[in-house]
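Recall from the previous lesson that a structure prediction takes nothing but the amino acid sequence as input. Here we apply that procedure to Glycosyl hydrolase from Paenibacillus ihbetae. The sequence below is the only information supplied.
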Amino acid sequence: MNRMIGRGGQSLRLGFIGLGKRGKSLLELLVEMPDVEIAAISDLYEDRLEEAARVVTDMGRPAPASCSDYREVIGREDVEAVIIASSWTSHSEIAIAAMQVGKAVASEVGGAASLEECWQLVRAYEATGTPCMLLENCCYGREEMALLHMVRQGVFGELIHCQGAYGHDLRDEVAKGMENRHYRIHNYLHRNGDVYPTHGLGPAAKLLNINRGNRMTKLSSMATKSRGVRDWARRHLGEDHPVARTDMALGDVVTTMIQCANGETILLTHDTSLPRPYSRGGRVQGTRGIWMEDGGVIHLEGRSPLHEWEPFAHYLQEYEHPLWAEYMQDGVRGGHGGMDYLCLRAFVESVLQEREMPIDVYDMASWMAVTALSEQSIELGSAAVAIPDFTNGKWMYREAAEPAGISF
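The prediction returns the following tokens.
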């Protein structure tokens, strides 16, 4: 996985902003990379800063500069790029500030609070030329990349429909959000829409060439009633717990249908407030076949028995993405089955080699916009709402990015 290094073998000096559970896990991966230096860290909580500093020094690296104000990190001369793993609603603010001072940005995922936020991201990039990448790790999953490989080879024929989801029982995390200083609860209390769309949308968008020959044009969303988190809190935290006496604004299941310019549809589901096993609900359907994540099955016309499913495992090996084939030889590492590491490497290598970001600011803006737009649609009785073209027409002729050997 060390095919580079650009700039004469130099390292990338990073500033790290946001050191909660997710941020710390990313830091642990980055500090092991020989071409990465952690120059500075920032978080609002002192205990997280101290723990993060120990992660760095325990690897025999110099202690990073530490502060509570992210502006100090992006203002440092020894910081070339920043990793943003703070709360959802702060990602864009920090990313824009970093781009404005010429620091390359890698931002964790989350939904946008407004369309204006998305436009501000695009304008900051276009005004500065500073690279910005969304760290959507699910685009780097083994199955997702094998499916991308299959689609590029025409195995599914012409794509017609894709599905994705964030299906994850998070009742305990949400209900105990105040005690555990987790920002997710504030979104559930005040917003009703797909607040976390990119895990399901990102892989589908890459399969359908969104922003690179295709784009999303409109969406319609619908939400169920909200019962799951409050019910869980009553049973596990007691009737007097604040969450047990509070209704969440967020519906327990939010469904969003998206129309694409080239005629395909994408179905997204947000489902985190009810008992369920984890799933990203993937489905890829074309004129020659269909794959479904739940059950791990596939049917390909002319190869599969008539009207029967087959296990996807055999095809996964046959159509292994070259990046994953190399990765498994080198040794899979890191969280979420190894995709976190690949996603971070894509950013590091793209910056060092001065190549286009594989998940760029236009992807970031359009994927995050689904949250604000789904809220609008639900408020309007599930009316269809237009999805802005954040590329301003460039989607019609932009080619797929191929940074650091990773072809999207």
